Amino acid sequence: MAGGNAMSRYARQICLPEVGDPGQAAIRSAHVLVVGAGGLGSPVLQYLVGAGVGQITLMDGDTVALSNLHRQTLFCEADVGRPKAQAAAQTLRALNGDCMINALEVPLDPANAPALVAQSTLVLDCADSFATSYTLSDICYAAGVPLISASVLGFSGYVAGFCGTAPSLRAVFPDLPERAATCATAGVMGPVVGMMGAAMAQMALAQLIGQTPSPLGQLLSFDMQTMRTGGFRFDTAPEPAVDLKFIAASEVSDADFVIELRDIIEAPQPVNATAHRLSVAEFTKAKFTPSPEQRAVFACRSGLRAWQAASYLRSYWDGDICLIAMGDTPPTEREI
Length: 336
Known about the structure:
The chain folds into two domains: 3-233, Rossmann fold (3-Layer(aba) Sandwich), CATH 3.40.50.720; 245-333, 3-Layer(aba) Sandwich (Oxidized Rhodanese, domain 1), CATH 3.40.250.10. The protein contains twelve helices and 13 strands. It has helices at residues 3-9, 11-14, 20-29, 41-51, 84-95, 113-118, 130-143, 169-172, 183-186, 190-209, 280-286, 304-314; strands spanning 31-35, 55-59, 100-104, 122-125, 147-153, 156-162, 218-223, 228-233, 245-246, 257-260, 276-277, 296-300, 321-325. β4 (122-125), α7 (130-143) and β5 (147-153) form a beta-alpha-beta unit. α11 packs parallel to α12. The model is unreliable at 329-336 (pLDDT under 50).
């Protein structure tokens, strides 16, 4: 776009003293990784492209479904059945031809994440998946790359800035919850997701322009049922040792001690041929112990059961333990 037109397009943000020409140049030179093009990713992507972010890599292995449309505002009825990454990229390119859009029609996992994070100025976690959040946090923290992450359910949620100059997600959320609910099982209000996505986009732009106070180390919470907001800074939260990390299914070897926590109906084929198929209750009752030289690997759908079984094993065994989230949920319910 010609310089004069570019100035006109971004004039309303450039005129802000906190942005100016240097801030717009920083936005233009950024390469942002957005994981998930669902309810959070929709406003995130539209606002970042509208603001003139130079390059965006968006990842989503899901397809558009009719039940998504109340909250995934990048899509219309004609997009139902299309890959989200493909449909989103088409809309975003039409919104701003200045922005380079790299669309990847695959989900993020621990195998492909390191290279993608390494090439990014900033990462946004819009997938609302335990495994994705912890995987991105571990990799971003090690690489020194800022991570903006959010989670929404029902009428409430939070958004926070992790890593970079701030503590990781593990410092704030060292453990997974006892139980997991999803938008499919518990429901979610579309505008609440949109609010959280807009907040993510604003935190991302604040980080790119060097706004103070920094969005990194800040958590914001919204409860739109009680109409209350909250938040806190966690700049000094102690960083725990990385334990029970997620790996990709492709990284399992025959030498590993593998527990498949999905039953045969949920997963006719276990994560690998040597896996022992047990429920969390069965594993804790049997009190299995791997050999000292083995790595213990627990696999389930979301990572929650794997975390529970691994936490029990950790209580009496100090060897290497890894988790796998297979993610084999109905494809239209992976991102909020």
